[in-house]
Fold this protein.
Amino acid sequence: MTLRTTRTTRTRLGVALVAAAAAGALAVSASPASANASDGYVSGAGSFYDDFGDEGTLSTSSHSSSNATCLWQIILLAEGANESDGSDYDAADIDGEFGPNTKVATQSLQRTWGLGVDGIVGTQTFGAADEQWNSSTGAGELEHVSTGTTADTKYKLRYHGSKYYFDFYRTESGRYRFYHNGAWHYASYSSNTCS
């Protein structure tokens, strides 16, 4: 995983309007996203900016040991979410295990994003992480960086957190994959290769 420092200030005001106005311009196709935990992977189709809102639930009791949780933990790191001791979530916390520390960091991020605070990554929380990035305003999170030539690197995306950004891919088949601890991982709900 390569994280890079991003903007120092960030506004979420007007994100919905900006994302709605620009979503059509960068959409890959008009077909809607169709993914959930029963598919086995964090995945999507068509526009990137609605892929996460229909994903399965991540919590201490649901997909608590998985690569999907690992991807969420990388988002927590990029956002600078706070741990139970008040420090920022860090790379040592990324292990694909949704334990008490990940729950507290999720609650911290939910507060920051103005969502209901329950420490569960449901459709509203996961969906808040796929708003289209707008470089002019610094709003949103996801940016389509490039289209590749191999099935595994078909669409390169960048997640812009409030503290860092990281790159990852949506494959030709729609599955998300990311780099962590020297290896590529598919964002699977049923396996954990992140630790």
Remarks:
- The beta strands are 3-5, 142-147, 155-160, 164-170, 176-180, 183-186.
- The two ends are 13 Å apart (CA to CA).
- The longest helix spans residues 100-113.
- Residues 77 and 90 are 6 Å apart (CA to CA).
